[in-house]
């Protein structure tokens, strides 16, 4: 079994949590069967002419040969790189265990059905969601009582430990031929799937009209309007994987999680991907080139479009 641990990279506590998961898992299946991004790509020490692209290539190579994925997704703001990796795994038929300690559930309207994850696409592709939503018990040691802050920290640590063990148990309980998503279609025809961003001033109708004027059939997301959101999400996944092109508006502080997932799925399916991003901001890390999005998003996309003219030029190629 080869397992990819997908996790947020940009805070020390997130990396430490993923390392704890990987270490516990390696004790069960062997360290050589576990891939931990940042750690196993030696991100701090890696020297490459275009470091971000090289990291993308190393991670994508491992995504292409998996038996399973464990993805850590905490809270309503989900890392776009992790969501892209989930999409790639899902389109490749890889079973995905999602781990969360979020005590909230989500719905698309006030009275709608509750989901364990903010975007229905994540709910749809997860083989299993492992949720541990409550603090650990207040285990009081002998001797002087700890401060209330130390006690609270210990209860959070116990909750996390329980969650990690539960995710590993769920992974090891996967059958040899774990249930996977139905076979997804390959890109065909001249269809563009258009993914909007809730942060963008322009809606998907504008982008879809531009694609239609260039002679393309278009599809747009159904998961936010469908009577059954998970059914709509699976329709979006199928549309993105069967389209010749994916046009994704990645505007905002991060690429929206469902959009990031579809970018990963389209990349695994061989569709051409463009990121529409009229007002980019850049991130800077030691040794890396400036990145205008998470590197898993940036290098999955063949084109970075910031104007309607750039979009029309991409559609004409």
Textual characterization of the structure:
It contains ten helices and ten strands. The protein is α/β, with parallel strands linked by helices. The strands form two sheets. It has a five-stranded parallel sheet, sandwiched between helices. Strands 7-6-8-9-10 form a five-stranded parallel sheet, sandwiched between helices. Helix 1 links the parallel strand 1 (3-6) and strand 2. The model has no long low-confidence stretch (mean pLDDT 92).
Number of helices: 10
Sheet with most strands: strand arrangement: 2-1-3-4-5
Query: Can you write the helix and strand succession as a string?
Result: EHEHEHEHEHEHEHEHEHEH
Strand content: 5-15%
**Biggest sheet, in brief?**
5 strands, parallel
Q: What is the CA-atom radius of gyration, in angstroms?
A: 20 Å
* Shape category: globular
> What is the number of strand segments?
10
Structural class, by secondary structure, is: alpha/beta
Instruction: Determine the mean pLDDT.
Output: 92
The percent of residues in helical segments reads 25-40%
Stretches with pLDDT under 50, minimum 5 residues: none
In brief, what are we looking at here?
With 317 residues, the chain is of the alpha/beta class. It has helices at residues 12-29, 51-63, 80-91, 120-125, 148-172, 204-213, 229-242, 257-269, 295-298, 308-316, and strands spanning 3-6, 34-35, 68-72, 96-100, 128-131, 191-195, 217-219, 245-249, 272-276, 303-305.
